[in-house]
Design brief:
With 232 residues, the chain is an alpha/beta fold. The protein has one domain: Rossmann fold (3-Layer(aba) Sandwich), CATH 3.40.50.1360. It contains 8 helices and 10 strands. The strands form 2 sheets. A 7-stranded parallel β-sheet has the order 1-10-9-6-2-3-5, sandwiched between helices. Strands 4-8-7 form a 3-stranded antiparallel β-sheet. β7 and β8 form a beta hairpin. The protein is globular. The protein starts with a strand and ends with a strand. The structure holds the ligand O=C1O[C@H](COP(=O)(O)O)[C@@H](O)[C@H](O)[C@H]1O. The ligand O=C1O[C@H](COP(=O)(O)O)[C@@H](O)[C@H](O)[C@H]1O binds next to loops. Pathway: Carbohydrate degradation; pentose phosphate pathway; D-ribulose 5-phosphate from D-glucose 6-phosphate (oxidative stage): step 2/3. InterPro entries: 6-phosphogluconolactonase_DevB, 6PGL, Glc/Gal-6P_isomerase, NagB/RpiA_transferase-like. It catalyses: 6-phospho-D-glucono-1,5-lactone + H2O = 6-phospho-D-gluconate + H(+). Belongs to the glucosamine/galactosamine-6-phosphate isomerase family. 6-phosphogluconolactonase subfamily.
Amino acid sequence: MTAKLHEFSDAAALADALADKVATQLATAIEERGAASIAVSGGSTPKRFFEVLSASDIDWCKVTVTLVDERFVPADNSRSNHLLVATHLLKDKAAAAAFIPLYYDAPSIAEAADVATRKTAGIGHPFDVVILGMGTDGHTASFFPHGNNLARALDLSGPRGVLTMEAEGAGEERLTFSFSSLSDARFLALHIEGQGKKDVLDKAKAGTDETEMPIRAALNRARSPLEIYWAP
Ligand SMILES: O=C1O[C@H](COP(=O)(O)O)[C@@H](O)[C@H](O)[C@H]1O
């Protein structure tokens, strides 16, 4: 599948356009199937997009929100993606949405991943919307360069669900949806901002080694076309 680049003059214009597109996708899903699902990324980039989306006038009580990935930390930890989404997305009109976290207070991260897989299985598939981010190391979701579970996570013939990931650049241990869970979303987007990330994207496009830059899997072999939203 090919990737399409949508460029915007600034981050505010990008947030407005992406929120508008996502709201339309969710509204269409509700109209056609009675419910909608969205998996979003954490990090610093999505805050403005979340704020705009939270005010969208759609039937949020029919929307289920989850995360593409999470750190193995509870929701009151400042690095939790759940906390980010609770603070910037699950408010205003979007406060009516259901949220399914990936972190669970289990004896091990492997058991937490199993619980997350079970809890999220009811969302149905494919996701209506998946919004990926990208780190400057070329990771997306928690598909980190040289991650201990990367081959399994990126295997498109592998099962849907949540996996564990450890990598030098990841900080905490991670929970991540598998690539097979994310790559066939009805709307699959990559949201990145800044010239630095554009340079990383261009480097990723110029090579093929997914172990070095896992974002290449999303660029080159996602089941759905990847829509890249970028602003300087
Ligand atoms: O670790 C993470 O980082 C990426 C990118 O974050 P950003 O701060 O550079 O926007 C994010 O997509 C991912 O969900 C998150 O866990």
